[in-house]
Write a structure and sequence with these properties.
single chain, 11 helices
């Protein structure tokens, strides 16, 4: 395929999807990522697209967010590997929150096998993936439906999360840097993600290597709040991803690499970007109390219920305890 034909195909893919990884572009045009990177650089010089770390986006991509149909076809193998590794961080009987996104949707499909789990989410896709799991309880937030990613956003979603406490939050986003942490292109989504983080003792970010070093408009999780990053193994020539991983590790983020030898590695010191058991991150401890045993709402059926109901239940228990102390 001639360079002109190859670049035209690359441009058509980016226009159709909004954002495409270099790995996916190389697969479609049947050439190396080095060649694709050169083509993308040439198209950027013509003002036809913008380069982003690990991929290409339409001009003005800093503020543009792809919809679910486009995102669902990007980096599918990487998302699967990340979800497989992240699912191993969830234990039987835990209460967790899972944010919106195609990677978190993949995680939810694997969480359906974890018994006694309670999942709080603002994502219809996450809830759908868990809807038929017999031993998993799904708690939906309130809010206004955002059709582009099938997520509930707005003040209703944020208010329903007040007073909630869970062990872990699993979030994705549009970009991740050591300087700003996790970010997204939409203000409403960012606000709900921040509320999800406030409810959790630990924050786990799911981001494939193409998002490393990418910065978007609205910060959702500062780097010093991120407990762990689960990512995929970046190409050996991707020095920027390795540099970003090292910077994140230097700030105390634990790094789990899917696709490293042995199926994944949680790293703890050494050069970033290495595969296998090579370590990149030091352990970070957060003095945040974990939640106690989950309480059941009397008469509530297993399945979908509102986060506001869960919060009200916890508040009622506390009021009863205070009244008992006063009688004494």
């Amino acid at each position: 395929m001639f360079a002109a034909e190859r670049r035209q195909l690359i441009l058509e893919m980016v226009r159709a999807n909004g954002a495409v990884s270099l790995r996916e572009l190389a697969r479609v045009v049947q050439t190396s990522e080095v060649t694709v990177r050169r083509d993308v650089r040439a198209l950027e010089a013509e003002g036809l697209l913008d380069r982003r770390h690990g991929g290409a986006v339409l001009p003005g991509g800093f503020t543009r967010e792809s919809g679910f149909p486009q995102k669902s076809h990007l980096a599918t193998a990487e998302k699967t590997a990340i979800a497989d590794l992240a699912a191993g961080l969830v234990e039987e009987g835990e209460a967790i929150v899972v944010g919106a996104g195609t990677t978190t949707q993949e995680l939810a499909r694997r969480l359906a096998r974890v018994p006694g789990l309670t999942v709080v989410t603002n994502s219809l896709l996450v809830a759908q993936a868990l809807a038929h799991a017999n031993r998993v309880e799904v708690v939906m937030t309130g809010g206004t439906l955002r059709g582009s990613n099938y997520a509930l956003v707005g003040s209703g979603a944020e208010q329903s999360l007040q007073g909630l406490r869970v062990s872990k939050a699993f979030l994705s986003g549009s970009g991740l840097t050591a300087e700003r942490g996790l970010s997204t292109s939409n203000m409403l989504s960012a606000s709900v993600d921040r509320a999800l983080v406030q409810a959790a003792a630990e924050v786990v970010v799911l981001a494939d290597h193409s998002k490393l070093g990418t910065d978007t408009m609205f910060q959702t999780v500062p780097t010093d709040v991120i407990t762990r990053l689960v990512t995929d193994e970046s190409p050996g020539h991707d020095d920027r991803a390795a540099t970003e991983l090292q910077a994140l590790a230097d700030q105390g983020v634990q790094i789990a690499v899917a696709g490293a030898s042995g199926g994944g590695a949680v790293n703890g010191g050494g050069p970033a970007g290495a595969s296998g058991a090579d370590s990149v991150a030091r352990q970070q401890r957060r003095d945040v109390p974990l939640p106690g045993p989950r309480r059941q709402v009397p008469g509530a059926a297993a399945g979908l219920r509102s986060a506001a109901a869960l919060s009200e239940q916890n508040g009622g228990t506390e009021r009863a305890r205070v009244a008992d102390l006063r009688r004494r």
